[in-house]
Amino acid sequence: MIWDWDYALEVLPKLLDALIVTVQAALVGFVIALVLGMLIALARRSGRLWLSVPVGALAEFIRSTPLLVQLYFLFFVLPGFGIQTSPFITGVIGLGVHYATYTAEVYRAGLDAVPRGQWEAAWALDFSPLHTFRSIILPQALPPVVPVLGNYLIAIFKDTPLLSAITVLEMMQVAKIEGSETFQYLEPLTIVGLLFLIVSLISAVLIGRLENHLGVLRRI
Q1: Structural domains of the chain ordered from first start
Q2: Whole-model pTM above 0.85?
């Protein structure tokens, strides 16, 4: 197999367009995972068994089943119950819900690491639970878990090729389409691999800088 530069330059713009879709799916899915993960973590820490037990069981079920199966279920099964969305929306919801079960555990670890004396001091000062959580607990719980959350962002980005199974035109799907039309897979798949590598490295650098910034703020 010989590398064809003309063909590589021909497919590059299409793959860059697909890269935008891929990054959008990863970022939206990550935001869903961050928000939903916090809600799951708080629910599982709740003293109300009617809330913590079902949420915990559902989270374990989602975390213990393959993401691809969940995407198929959302895309092919839910429409039978009258719930139908576009492939892109279905994909980001699938990514977000799946990874929310992982970020929830990260949040739980961060919250559990905050000394209980912090809660007790806030209660002694008659702070409201919301003010205590938002202004005292979260600023201490989040910085240590930022690197792990950042790793999940990269993991979500690398899992976006699974969205091709539900017809989302992300990078891998476009590369497969281009390759099937010309029977030249070397160039598009290599470019896709390089684009994944570049974006992942950029993300890792940005996450590292954020971690350092939060570390400086904590020392101040």
Answers
A1: 5-219 (1.10.3720.10)
A2: yes
